[in-house]
Write a structure and sequence with these properties.
The structure is a single chain. This protein is 35% helix and 28% strand. The chain contains 15 helices and 22 strands. An 8-stranded antiparallel sheet has the order 13-12-9-10-11-14-21-19, with helices on both faces.
Length: 448
């Protein structure tokens, strides 16, 4: 096992890793920008080291500074959290070249699943169901028109290197397709430096279902059920729950076994998430995230497993500490992402926290790096906390979420808490009857 781990991240996820290290008896090293000198992860780690100025490019994305921090502190491994360098193939290669351990999958697997076309091809070969679409990149409008005619409209054009909804355009007819194709390529070039796009059949009312998988790189592979992440704004998740309210036990076993077998066959090591669109009882592969997800706590809640602890164990060369037969779902869990944003426009709202009180009680968990007097910097993501609840069933989880939101106090900045109070009053949310388009339509009707 490692003696010391450096956490190449900030905020609540850095705290999450520090806590896992502490339980394992492993010393932790926090890195931070100048803006984060007073951050909670800096205060809680065993050691802390400044790696650069305020901007992410000069600090949390600064390869040499992070490697140097390992050398200075004697850290043997790096946990990337999520975001930043968690899926950066080049960074993983550099980490390994310096004799350090990256707590996550290999550079080869990150590369394989990082490009959406390669990932889709890999998934298909592993027996994972995929959305009908182009076999690779689509280079011309003429090629796009022919494919769309064969598949039928509507279709969606996506950037191969895309993410966060950028470089994605829907076409409902031949008349729409040329503009959508050119716009998607232009956005992709601007956002990712790569204008390659591909095309898929556009599903009308799908849900977003993701399967949590874990491999040990030694032939072991399991799945930890699914999460429903269908309530999204601009392709960004805001409300996640497990298990999915629309998924049957039979469907869970079918798609879960397919994913677990694929992970084992790949020789994949660490945590991963295989994401799907789900419609009319069928699953269609979207992408694989080769890292820990923001919403991993809901899976931890229903299975009673510490996924960060398992990431560290597996990276240290251990086999999985649990088998598929050990994993049984217990109850229901929901997470809401709380951002420092001003409604209704969701504009970032950095500033000083004048009062903070985290909710508590049975079945309530608050993952946050806030404290009274802390100043939220304007340089990073606006996520300031994740409120996670767990109940014996979905109704109890919803009741606990409503109660916990009422206890939460974050004064000094605007937050998205009022959004969740409003959503919990909606019948569709109460019954779980929603899809990936539901929230956008609701926001247009209620917050425009």
């Amino acid at each position: 096992m490692f003696d010391k781990i450096l956490i190449a991240n900030r905020g609540e996820i850095a705290l999450r890793v520090i806590r896992a290290c502490r339980e394992l008896g492993i010393a932790s090293v926090a890195v931070h920008s100048e803006a984060d000198a007073d951050a909670m992860h800096v205060r809680m780690a065993d050691e802390a080291i400044c790696i650069g100025p305020n901007s992410s490019a000069q600090s949390y994305l600064n390869f040499p500074a992070i490697i140097a921090a390992c050398e200075i502190t004697g850290a043997q491994a790096i946990h990337p959290g999520y975001g930043f360098l968690s899926e950066n193939q080049k960074f993983v290669e550099i980490v390994e070249e310096h004799g350090l351990k990256f707590i996550g999958p290999s550079a080869a697997h990150i590369s394989q699943m990082g490009d959406k076309i390669t990932a889709k091809d890999t998934a298909e070969k592993l027996g994972i169901p995929v959305v009908p679409g182009s076999k690779g990149g689509v280079a011309t409008v003429e090629e796009a028109l022919k494919l769309a005619d064969d598949m039928g409209y509507p279709v969606i054009i996506k950037a191969t290197a895309g993410g966060g909804g950028r470089g994605m355009k829907v076409a409902t007819s031949r008349d729409d397709l040329e503009v959508a194709f050119r716009t998607a390529r232009s956005e992709a070039k601007s956002a990712f430096g790569n204008d390659e796009v591909y095309m898929e059949k556009y599903l009308q009312k799908p849900r977003h279902i993701e399967i949590q998988v874990f491999g040990d790189g030694q032939g072991g592979g399991v799945h930890l059920g699914e999460r429903d992440c269908s309530l999204q704004r601009r392709h960004q998740k805001v409300f996640e729950e497990a298990p999915g309210p629309s998924i049957t036990a039979e469907e869970r076993k079918r798609i879960g076994d397919i994913c677990a077998n694929a992970i084992a066959e790949m020789g994949y090591s660490g945590a991963g998430t295989i994401e799907f669109l789900y419609e009319d009882g069928e699953f269609y592969f979207i992408e694989m995230n080769t890292r820990l997800q923001v919403e991993h706590p809901v899976t931890e809640a229903i299975f009673g497993q510490d996924l960060v602890r398992e990431q560290i164990r597996v990276a240290a060369g251990n086999k999985l500490s649990f088998s598929q037969d050990d994993l049984e779902i217990n109850g229901h869990s929901i997470e809401v992402r709380i951002n420092a944003e001003k409604l209704p426009n969701f504009s970032p709202c950095p500033g000083k926290i004048t009062a903070y009180h985290a909710p508590g009680g049975l079945g309530v968990r608050m993952d946050s790096a806030l404290y009274t007097g802390y100043s939220i910097p304007p340089y990073y993501d606006s996520l300031i906390g994740k409120l996670i609840v767990h109940g014996r069933d979905r109704a109890e989880a919803l009741a606990r979420l409503k109660r916990a939101l009422g206890e939460l106090i974050v004064d000094g900045v605007d937050t998205t808490v009022p959004l969740f109070h409003a959503l919990l009053e909606e019948e569709d949310v109460q019954t779980g009857d929603y899809n990936i388009h539901w929230l956008e339509k609701w926001l247009d009707a209620n917050m425009s």
